[in-house]
Write a structure and sequence with these properties.
Layout lengths: L3 H15 L3 H10 L5 H16 L1 H11 L9 H16 L5 H14 L6 H14 L73 H9 L3 H23 L5 E5 L6 H10 L3 E4 L6 E5 L16 E3 L2 H10 L6 E4 L6 H9 L5 E6 L2 H13 L5 E5 L12 E7 L14 H4 L2 H18 L3 E11 L8 H10 L3 E3 L16 E3 L1 H4 L4 E8 L4
Parallel strand pairs: 5-6, 5-8, 6-7, 8-9
Antiparallel strand pairs: 1-3, 1-4, 2-3, 9-12, 10-12, 11-12
Helix pairs in contact: 1-2, 1-3, 1-5, 2-3, 3-5, 4-5, 5-6, 5-7, 6-7, 8-9, 11-12, 15-16
Length: 507
């Protein structure tokens, strides 16, 4: 199959019909196609962008069609998503091409009788959208990032379905309608929202413009206010950055900079992170970059690198990484220890530990020992470790820019369940630490229930533990309590929480 929009449609159909994860659906779609790199990038952009912007696009359908988006035939709604996503967010695609290819897509997938409706709705939207110069804008694809962030999610809730249920019971052509006399909209990526009346309620307004569920918008406004919430939403709808962590046992940051320069790849250093290097612009396949096979570097976001610096493992020590896979922080610990000592890398999923071992082998690490199983059931580790890292499974709400569908898969209820699991893991991991030893708790979420609440509860129940504020120079200012919370829009890296806990020696 060679038609990129048809391939995107098939992937999205799997997401909406079966609740498939967007990245998995995309991988399956690619396995059955033969596309050049340019078309693969287009498919990736269409799939991830349409999933990410579902709420915004459904709002447009609701405003322009007589039938609400939730009442359209599911596959027709998917086709409309593809067309409207191109019109609103991909200015480099001519509107006529977006309209015509979407109409053709409808005809080829059983909606010939509704092709005039598709044509009419899309053309009505183009009349509402002021012309914009061609650019490379829009919601850029996560697929350009070579690996997902090190989130450890456990949610299996269904993706956002939009509105109320119901079907489109008649094959007759739906009517389009326009809305006028609405206040002008001053934000967003495209221009079509200018002529669509948005809710005055700030939670609903921001949720529609930036395509997030109301409960997340409410949560963020409570923590950082409306202005910063909008900035955070904009960050999460951008393309993720790609950071490297240089392996100082095999190379140096200057050597990597020089090697990348010879391949015309721009890089920039990140202040106060001596091993971090950010890649700028298009880079191609990661495995083809200089130094990959030699183990000179690995991919790890800057905020994840902060965690291991906070742990500060030393040569000769015994370290337990209680939830280690996929292993970025495990191998970072080995680097900081000069690969001298013992690191027990634990995870209950053998396949994820296999990837950890492959990466450790590529980086030529010898100090890492794999331990398969649930870290809540390792009595042999009690009082064994000088330092323990608990990079806890979490909702990943600090890395929403890396997973297009994550914003739709979580609810306040499953966040509460996640928090309970994290508390259990923390209480058990604390038993692994020698008296006077250190434990670092970290997540890639910015939800207080998974972070501050877990730590406060632990300290209330364990008076012989206390927060040890960072003594190293970090690019993020610690809170008065002593923990570090990374806000992506402020610090230009993945959202993270981390805190260093010290066990007091008993008299």
């Amino acid at each position: 199959m060679q038609n990129p929009r048809q391939i995107a449609f098939l992937a999205l159909r799997e997401v909406h019909r079966r609740g498939a994860f967007a990245d998995a659906a995309l991988d399956r779609a690619f396995s059955n196609s033969q596309l050049n790199d340019l078309d693969r990038r287009l498919v990736t952009e269409l799939v991830y962008g349409s999933v990410r912007r579902m709420r915004s696009i459904d709002f447009i359908i609701d405003k322009l069609a007589t039938k609400k988006s939730s009442q359209q035939p599911p596959e027709l709604r998917t086709i409309l998503h593809l067309g409207l996503y191109q019109l609103e967010y991909l200015n480099q695609i001519p509107p006529s091409a977006a309209v015509n290819t979407t109409v053709q897509l409808a005809k080829e997938n059983g909606f010939s009788g509704l092709s005039s409706f598709v044509n009419g709705l899309l053309r009505e939207y183009t009349r509402l959208t002021p012309p914009t110069p061609p650019c490379q804008g829009g919601a850029k694809s996560v697929a350009n990032s070579p690996q997902q962030a090190e989130t450890k999610t456990t949610s299996n809730s269904p993706p956002y379905q939009g509105g109320a249920g119901g079907g489109f019971n008649s094959p007759q052509q739906a009517e389009t309608k326009t809305t006028s006399n609405s206040p002008p909209y001053q934000g967003g990526a495209g221009g079509g929202f200018n002529s669509l009346k948005l809710p005055e309620n700030p939670v609903q307004r921001l949720g529609i413009i930036h395509s997030f569920p109301d409960w997340l918008i409410e949560l963020w406004i409570e923590q950082i206010g409306e202005t910063e919430t909008e900035q955070l939403c904009e960050w999460f709808n951008q393309s993720p950055t790609i950071d490297l962590r240089i392996n100082p046992l095999k190379s140096s940051i200057a050597q990597i900079e020089a090697a990348f320069k010879t391949h015309n790849i721009s890089t920039s250093r990140i202040p106060q992170l001596p091993q971090a290097l950010r890649l700028n612009g298009s880079i191609g396949a990661i495995q083809n970059l200089p130094g990959y096979s030699e183990g000179w570097w690995t991919i790890q976001d800057s905020s994840a690198q902060l965690v291991t610096h906070l742990l500060a493992p030393q040569p000769g020590e015994t370290i337990i990484d209680a939830c280690a896979a996929p292993g970025g922080k495990t191998t970072h610990s080995a680097e900081l220890m000069q690969d001298e000592g013992t690191i027990y890398a634990c995870d209950k999923t053998a396949s994820r530990l296999k990837k950890l071992k492959e990466n450790a082998d590529r980086l030529q690490m010898k100090s890492i020992k794999i331990h398969t199983g649930d870290s809540r059931h390792f009595p042999e580790f009690v009082n064994l470790a000088d330092r323990v890292l608990l990079d806890a499974p979490c909702s990943g709400l600090g890395t929403l820019h890396r997973r297009a569908d994550a914003r739709w898969r979580h609810t306040p209820e499953n966040i509460q369940t996640q928090s309970q699991l994290q508390s259990e893991l923390l209480a058990n991991a604390a038993t692994f630490v020698k008296p006077g030893g250190v434990l670092v708790y970290a997540t890639c979420t910015i939800h207080p229930l998974e972070n501050e609440t877990v730590i406060r509860s632990f300290l209330d129940s364990n008076p012989h533990w206390q927060i040890e504020p960072p003594t190293i120079d970090l690019p993020v200012q610690p809170s008065p309590e002593g923990w570090v919370k990374v806000w992506p829009h402020r610090h230009h890296m993945d959202g993270f929480f981390m805190v260093r806990l010290k066990q007091l020696k008993k008299n």
